[in-house]
Amino acid sequence: MTDIDNKYADGFPFSREGEDFKQGLSLMREVLGEESSEHIESLLDNPLFGDELGYVFSKTWGALYEREGLTLKERSLILMGTDLALGREGPLKDHMKVALHAGMEPKQIIEVLFQTVFYLGAPAMVLGLKVANEVLGPEIKEMLEQKEQQNSNQ
């Protein structure tokens, strides 16, 4: 790495050598998987907006999530509420996955969605339930199978 690269490693213009980027990429791979990580990395090669996207990614997934003061679970609660308020389906999916990764239970995520109905309205909750159905699909299936097994044992 040159002195110039080192100077900008955690600032703008963006550098893949920056600590924020490395931390963010590691967390994203854990939470969203390799496919999403590879997709994001491919966007960083775009000559028109790659540096800007890399900078934003580094500061959100990297620096912001690493700050002290809030746990990853608490941050995911805030971000899910923000996503619902703004009607942002894509980020809501990601932030639900972050919440699960941070130890939140599926029923807690549904409770978060229900809490919003009186503040954001039913459409926001319905959007949240739609996204939750996609994200929590495997967990919902497991819950249904457990319920069926309990019913058959009675």
UniProtKB/TrEMBL annotation:
Coiled-coil stretches: none
Domain Carboxymuconolactone decarboxylase-like per the UniProt entry, residue ranges: 57-134
Keywords attached to this entry: Lyase
Enzyme type, top EC level: lyase
Gene Ontology molecular function, alphabetical: 4-carboxymuconolactone decarboxylase activity; peroxiredoxin activity
InterPro entries (alphabetical): 4CMD/NDH-1_regulator, AhpD-like, CMD-like
Enzyme Commission designation: 4.1.1.44
Domain of life: Bacteria
Gene3D superfamilies per UniProt: AhpD-like
Protein name per UniProt: 4-carboxymuconolactone decarboxylase
Organism: Cycloclasticus zancles 78-ME
